[in-house]
Amino acid sequence: MDNLYILAAFAVVFSALFTPIVKRIAISINVIDVPKDDRRVHKKPIPLLGGLAIYFSFIFTIILKAGALTSQEKGIIIGATIIVIGGFLDDKFDLKPWQKLLFQLGASIALILYGVMIFRITNPIANSNLYINVKVFSIPLTIIWVVGITNALNLIDGLDGLAAGVAFISCITILIIALLNSRIEASVLTSILAGSILGFLPYNFNPASIFMGDTGAQLLGFLLAAISIEGAVKSAAAFAIAVPILALGIPIYDTLFAVIRRKINGKPIMQADKGHLHHRLLAMGLSQKQVVMIMYFISAVLGTFAVIAMQVNSQRSYFLLLIVMIILIITAWKCGFFKHRE
């Protein structure tokens, strides 16, 4: 446990030192977010690429930790590097969605090649078989999970400190779950990622002096997806689906509601709008800081449910997930989250 604190502390220091350097680099190569439409909340140009500070901090700390890199760690590092390259190109040149997807698929395949995969899932049906071997569906299920979470984190990156803070809370949740289940490798990776985010947050919290950009938002989504495969497991290494879905609840549900909203209103799924949770809360007259703190709180509550879900049997964890989903969907419907807003 002491080692986890030390690794997290190193990651915080590295990230805090790297961020000003990355900021200067972003300005020097003109990778800056200039507000061009009313979807953007900030009013002045802000440098991007803050995700590079998180990436370098994460990689350096992993390399410095005791012991040789495991196969899974190598896969995560390679995948993260692919994601960061794609994110950098997107921040600089504004890639098309299919181009982003190619990098995300490449990163997912890197994980699979190094053994980071969903092999079995917990069985939601009460019978003698506690786990379901997904067999040939292992590869597509892993890819869908990784690509989905990578994009989900990217979609909520709309306010100062929002995506980074939500990712940090998800890290703490997965760390607790990993420790409770003696998933040492996942505990190490999550503590390092949490430290890397924490060192960056002071620069990114309102009023932000730097944005993480797609480089950082996609990186955080990818790393959380990969680490959750390693950490959100019960005995026999079965993936407890309800646990990471709750731990990563904010980005998952916000993305789900966005897809439903656009389908209901006949809009393309990839078309941006102002219907995300943070947009709705801002429209109610709340300040950026108030909205971010509310979403932090919701994320923490969902994280608590995730920890509970890990401690009960599979059927009860799925039931808990179902209840949470029903409550959120009803709340979203009543609050008009499925109505289109330009």
TrEMBL record:
InterPro entries: Glycosyl_transferase_4, PNAcMuramoyl-5peptid_Trfase_CS. GO terms for cellular component: plasma membrane. The chain crosses the membrane at residues 6-26, 46-68, 101-122, 134-155, 162-180, 186-203, 235-260, 291-312, 318-337. CDD domains: GT_WecA_like. One of its GO terms (biological process) is cell wall organization. Its cofactor is Mg(2+). It is found in: Cell membrane. One of its GO terms (molecular function) is phosphotransferase activity, for other substituted phosphate groups. It is a multi-pass membrane protein. Mg(2+) binds at N154, D214. Keywords: Cell membrane, Magnesium, Membrane, Metal-binding, Transferase, Transmembrane, Transmembrane helix. PROSITE patterns: MRAY_2. It comes from the Bacteria. Pfam families: Glycos_transf_4. This is Undecaprenyl/decaprenyl-phosphate alpha-N-acetylglucosaminyl 1-phosphate transferase. It comes from Clostridium fermenticellae.
